[in-house]
Automatic annotation (TrEMBL):
It catalyses: glycerol + ATP = sn-glycerol 3-phosphate + ADP + H(+). It comes from the Bacteria. The keyword Repeat does not apply. One of its GO terms (molecular function) is glycerol kinase activity. The gene is glpK. It is an enzyme of class 2 (transferase). This is Glycerol kinase. SUPFAM superfamilies: Actin-like ATPase domain. Pathway: Polyol metabolism; glycerol degradation via glycerol kinase pathway; sn-glycerol 3-phosphate from glycerol: step 1/1. Keywords: ATP-binding, Glycerol metabolism, Kinase, Nucleotide-binding, Transferase. Its EC number is 2.7.1.30.
């Protein structure tokens, strides 16, 4: 068997390809950003064709860097931004519209109407999700209703839908020449269209959005040696490689962090924050604003479920300091600026740029900086921004404890913000539990590689993967309980100041 596994990590701001060995060590990578298209307030789009071109380029370049070819890869996995919605023509391969990104809020009226009409509880019970702009169902409905010709093409079977995993898989397996139209349960569970129990599209849920069933991909296990086919010769891999695994990005990070035991949890710090808690083979229905989602399904085994807290704006709040306010020149400078002060000086920043996601689910919220006085300066703003990442994560941890009865012993972390030592220390202080970072911080790509490698026997079992996990850093909490409680209570007060800002009909 070849010595390596490859993974495409198609994210919100960039696409990368990474190559791993059997020890889970990185051998090579290449990464390219793609354009963020912002047509109007609340709208966020990507160009699907650009994403496919970037995917081709990063695969080719990473293989060249490592002096490897398709024959050196035992399997290929894909992980992706999950709810982002692409609708394209299966005969021409051309998208009907830009990809509508998970952050996009144009479907707020669709989500509100579902609640008014009493359909929200059905969606929660069957799909494990609240009606929200976040998920794919409303985005598909918007394209069907607003882009000329798509409704007719969908009824005829020509217009098909996919999240970006499906879009890339279709191209990698042949595109208009027999490309496979498939997805996995972790991505399908983010649409508001899949029944969590049956792992199949639900006709009643489809009727809520007016979506023809024939638009949707086949749902197959997250790790499987045959379901995803092989790459086509002549593509970016220039040879046949088994496509062994697909996982939505946050579920992939959970697998990469080897959270295979019930009660283990990880938090990924990226554009947003995503905290997942493994709840085992029985879905736990949240009563406190979390999502019930499929964590993974390996081969013919029963699906494993998770509670998830999705936070829209965390790392992107640091980007806002750089791009919109101009008070830092790069993300790493947020730490040095924040270290110029000992605390936040009474300033709290709630970055509700796209409303508030878990556990609040308030599309009417907008960002607010509160507690300002003449004393405060840009260092306090920078510190409040880092703290906002940590307080939003605590909101989710509290909801998970209430839903599951599980109190965390440690939080495993990954993603770009974990390079910020101050932010991770604040996270431990705010939570009151240790924060642990693995040696391989790119756990999203690693999880996709693990899913693909398990499918073909490159790794024999999840126990093999647990042997690969090693701790790199650990942050222990330093705050007193009184300080922790007082600060968190003030944060909760700050959140109330963001609500009821936008009228949602």
């Amino acid at each position: 068997m070849p010595d390596f596994v490859g993974a495409v990590d198609q994210g919100t701001t960039s696409t990368r390809f990474m190559i791993f060995d059997q020890g889970g060590n990185e051998i090579a990578r290449h990464q390219l950003e793609h354009e963020q298209i912002l047509p109007q307030a609340g709208w966020v789009e990507h160009n699907p064709t650009e994403i496919w071109e970037r995917t081709r380029a990063v695969i080719e370049t990473a293989l060249t860097k490592a002096n490897l070819g398709a024959g050196d890869l035992a399997a290929l996995g894909i992980t992706n931004q999950r709810e982002t919605t692409v609708v394209w023509n299966r005969r021409t391969g051309r998208p009907y519209y830009n990809a509508i990104v998970w952050q996009d809020t144009r479907t707020d009226r669709i989500a509100s109407a579902l609640e008014r009409e009493g359909k929200g509880d059905v969606i929660r019970r069957r799909a494990g999700l609240p009606p929200a702009t976040y998920f794919s169902g409303g985005k598909i409905q918007w394209i069907l209703e607003n882009v000329d010709g798509v409704r007719e093409a969908a009824e005829a079977g020509d217009a098909i839908f996919g999240t970006t995993d499906t879009w890339l898989l279709w191209h990698l397996t042949g595109g208009i020449d027999g490309g496979l139209h498939v997805t996995d349960p972790t991505n399908a569970s983010r649409t508001m269209l899949m029944d969590l129990e049956t792992l199949d599209w639900d006709d009643e849920l489809l009727s809520f959005f007016g979506i023809p069933r024939r638009m949707l991909p086949l749902i197959v296990p997250s790790s499987h040696s045959e379901a995803y086919g092989r790459t086509r010769p002549g593509g970016p891999l220039a040879g046949e490689v088994v496509l062994g695994g697909v996982l939505g990005d946050q579920q992939a990070a959970t697998v990469g962090q080897v959270c295979f035991d019930v009660g283990t949890a990880k938090n990924t710090y990226g554009t947003g924050n995503f905290l997942l808690l493994n709840t085992g083979t029985t879905p736990v229905r949240s009563q406190h604003g979390l999502l019930t989602t499929v964590c993974y399904q390996l081969g013919d085994q029963a699906p494993v479920y998770a509670l998830e807290g999705s936070i829209a704006v965390t790392g992107s709040a640091v980007q806002w300091l750089r791009d919109q306010l101009g008070i830092i020149s790069g993300a790493e400078q947020s730490e040095s600026l924040a270290r110029q002060v000992d605390d936040n000086g009474g300033v709290f920043f709630v970055p509700a740029f796209s409303g508030l996601f878990a556990p609040y689910w308030r599309s009417d919220a907008r960002g607010a900086i509160v507690g300002l006085s003449r004393y405060n300066n840009n260092a306090h703003i920078a510190r409040a921004t880092l703290e906002s990442i940590c307080y939003q994560s605590r909101d989710v941890v509290e909801a998970m404890r209430q839903d599951s009865g599980v109190a965390l012993d440690v939080l495993r972390v990954d993603g770009g913000v974990t390079a910020n030592d101050l932010c991770m220390q604040i996270q431990a202080d705010v939570l009151g539990v240790p924060v642990s970072k693995p040696v391989v911080a790119e756990t999203t790509a690693l999880g996709a590689a693990y899913a693909a490698g398990l499918a073909v026997g490159f790794w024999k079992s999840c126990d093999d993967l647990k042997q690969n996990w090693q701790e790199d850093r650990r942050w222990e909490p330093r705050w007193s309980q009184d300080r922790r409680d007082t600060a968190y209570a003030t944060w909760k007060k700050a959140v109330t100041r963001t609500l009821d800002w936008v009228d949602v009909g």
